[in-house]
Amino acid sequence: TLDLTCRRAPCFAKFSEMEEMVNMEAEINEVQPLLLSVTIGSTLQFYFIGKKCEILQDMNRHLETILKEKRDLRKRMIKHRCQESLPIEATYHKCVVQLLTEAVTFIEKLESHLQSVRSIPQIPHMMNNMDTTLSKTEVLMIELEELTEQILKWEELQKEVYSN
């Protein structure tokens, strides 16, 4: 009977409403930090996405300018340069021809020159290898001389044996 009367009485109804409100506030207080962290995370994510978009737009503009320059360079390379060159006085024609032949030979030998320059850091290692190879060669020469002496002695012995 108490249970039945407490539900019907208006004072207990207010009490249950207050209890529901306290429970709701507790749930809100539990959920609120999660919502705040999600909101902050998404805000930061949007901020960094915005920064990345700006960087990509800058790169895109840079690549567009490079492509434009590339097109201009191709057009300039295709165009004939005969009419645009400066006239050279007749007295300098011989010098220009010599200069051009030297330039052509330099360009032909450029790869070998570049390989020579690339091999410079390896020179100490190559020198060590040459030193060890030289010492091995000297040892082999000494052994060859000894072997030659032994062969000559053996040949003399064979001559003596055949002569006797």
Task: Provide structural commentary.
By secondary structure, the protein is mainly α. It is built from 4 helices and no strands. The chain is elongated, with a radius of gyration of 48 Å.
The overall pLDDT average reads 82
Radius of gyration (CA) equals 48 Å
Largest sheet: none
Shape: elongated
Give the low-confidence spans: none
Number of helices: 4
| Overall SS class | mainly alpha
Which helices and strands, and how do they pair?
Blueprint: H1 2-8, H2 10-78, H3 93-118, H4 123-163
Keywords:
single chain, 164 residues, mainly alpha, 0% strand, coiled coil, HAUS2, HAUS2 protein, HAUS2_metazoa
Short structural description:
The protein has helices at 2-8, 10-78, 93-118, 123-163. The chain is mostly helical and 164 residues long.
